[in-house]
Design goal:
The complex is a heterodimer.
Chain A lengths: L2 E3 L4 E5 L4 E3 L2 E3 L6 E7 L6 E7 L7 E2 L2 E6 L4 E6 L8 E8 L9 E3 L3 E6 L1
Parallel strand pairs in A: 2-12
Antiparallel strand pairs in A: 1-4, 3-9, 5-6, 5-10, 7-8, 8-9, 10-11, 10-12
Chain B lengths: L3 E4 L2 E4 L5 E7 L4 E9 L5 E8 L5 E2 L8 E7 L2 E6 L8 E9 L6 E2 L3 E5 L1
The chains are: A mainly beta, B mainly beta.
């Protein structure tokens, strides 16, 4: 079974600085999807970035980028120029491409990101 | 695009009553919707997966007679908590996947408090 591990329960960063959140996963599948979701205090889960495993190029979305290391099964999220609005819980998630998985997401435990003004 | 609404956002009910939570995909059709429960400071716990027009698939340990799920259309799924008890108090979140199901989009959640 697939698992997702976020080893950093909490991270803090100075506003305008760069921070990297770690995520590792375990799977025997060769094709899959990986996601980072953000959950601010409002508790609305927001998609930050998505990566397809068959794509070697790292996904980027404005200030957010990933370092996808397929062989190492690592999927870290880099946030550049951190802003106060980035303060949230960040969850890493894995999705199998198999229909019999019902396309469920396997979730990490989350990392709380604190932005220091 | 990819907006999911959830209603109500907050509900308080007496023990023994039933509560219905609606989840709607506003700008896309969702063949699959998911219902989660989230405890404070924890990750999401999947309760069930529903596909339009068929019975929901419940995760192990989730009582299907207590948490009734109906996915009657490609834009609407409902979760009914029957005979609610204080231990059912929690934050419930739905998500929906478009016809090409590579991404789940989430509703804003419902805070249920059972007195």
């Amino acid at each position: 079974a697939q698992t997702v591990t976020q080893s950093q329960p909490e991270m803090s960063v100075q506003e305008a600085e760069t921070v990297t959140l770690s995520c590792t996963y375990d799977t025997s599948e060769s094709d899959y999807y990986l996601f980072w979701y953000k959950q601010p205090p409002s508790r609305q889960m927001i998609l930050v970035i998505r990566q397809e495993a068959y794509k070697q190029q790292n996904a980027t979305e404005n200030r957010f980028s990933v370092n996808f290391q397929k062989a190492a099964k690592s999927f870290s999220l880099k946030i550049s120029d951190s802003q106060l609005g980035d303060a949230a819980m960040y969850f890493c998630a894995y999705r199998s491409p198999m229909m019999d998985s019902n396309y469920q997401l396997i979730w990490g435990a989350g990392t709380k990101l604190i932005i220091k003004p | 695009g990819a907006v999911v609404s959830q209603h109500p956002s907050r509900v308080i009910c007496k023990s023994g009553t039933s509560v219905k939570i609606e989840c709607r995909s506003l700008d896309f059709q969702a063949t699959t919707m998911f219902w989660y429960r989230q405890f404070p400071k924890q990750s999401l716990m999947l309760m069930a997966t529903s596909n339009e027009g068929s019975k929901a698939t419940y995760e192990q340990g989730v009582e299907k007679d207590k948490f009734l799920i109906n996915h009657a259309s490609l834009t609407l799924s409902t979760l009914t908590v029957t005979s609610a008890h204080p231990e059912d108090s929690s934050f419930y979140i739905c998500s929906a996947s478009p016809l090409t199901p590579d991404t789940q989009y989430f509703g804003p959640g419902t805070r249920l408090t059972v007195l």
